Structure prediction request, 408 residues.
Amino acid sequence: MSSSTLTIPPASHAPPSNVVVSPHSEPRSPNSDVEPSSPRTPRRLARSNSQLSRWSMARAVRSGKKLSRPVLLPGNEPYQSDSPSPGSIDEKTRGGGEFLLQSPRSDAEDAADVGAAAKSIYLVSDGTGWTVEHSVSAALGQFEHCLADRGCPVSTHLFSGVDDMDRLIEIIAQASKEEALLVYTLADPSFAASAKQACEIWGVVSLDILGPITEALSSHLGVSPSGLPRWAPQRKRQLGEEYFKRIEAIEFTIKQDDGALPENLHKADLILTGVSRTGKTPLSIYLSQKGYKVANVPIVMNVDLPESLFEEDEGKVFALTINPVVLHTIRRARAKSLSFSDEMRCTYSDMEHVKRELEYATKIFQRKPKWPVIEVTGRAIEETAAIILRLYHDRKKKCLMPRISRRY
Prediction:
């Protein structure tokens, strides 16, 4: 398909199927004497996709958006909940009554309805959608001040594995109906260009995440991109050495959880240690998915740590600590969910015991001053992992500037 000319298939609110449009011209009907904006011109409605329509209706209901559908009043007279535009309702009677048109709504009422509904963001990918989903998630983090109090609610909708033009146009048509922002990662340059062109025709605001980066890399390397999605059958070495390294790291990390098999600590790339509920296990799993073999060793009062922990390379051991009040709250919730006995609670979630255990861990850390002690209070797993990897690579490579280096 040419990237400069796009034929739009029939879809809801789409131009006629026999109209060929280009990105430089507005779509016109075959009868060019009729103005598209004329109120006398009948609107041509094509069949819409029922599944996408159901999704749209469900999202509207969840967001509190009012639906334009007739409600039966006493006397069998249907009533329209929202004011339709002139000419949008057939004036034939339906169900023994007629549709009654309300007076035009005020701008304030319309603004209130728009504010109550969540704005939609469509995420479209020809692969798994991981890149576009995480890119948008990172950008939404800049708007937490209004997302938290529902001042500007947002609904994201991921469409993965989109490699067919008909399905792409169907999604764009639905995005047009919802006035959604469409963000896409499409590896094929011509497919991405068609998506951009279709969005311009339908009046959908769109953003290409992958295209600008790919073009910059192509210019920098002097090589043309393949244009194939990550998991396309034509791509060679789909499950290469890096993939199996990650699987091996995950398996190792699961076996080494919670201090198991201390004799294997020398095989680990990273070792985490700290008191219970400092996030050692989820942090270990997260790091293992990046290809690092991770062992975690819990610190428990009156329980000796394995001597091999103190004999390992200090550059790969990381100590975790946490605010005692936060740890106390976490442990109380866990003790309640697991129905701990009163005796177990005194040695696990009691505030004085929590403080003593943290002091005990601090004394152990002082024995090894080269172990980095990382405060995890209020930090997401991703943040803590970034700190650990930066320190680990900085020590390993002895870089002048802290970085996480990787060779492709």
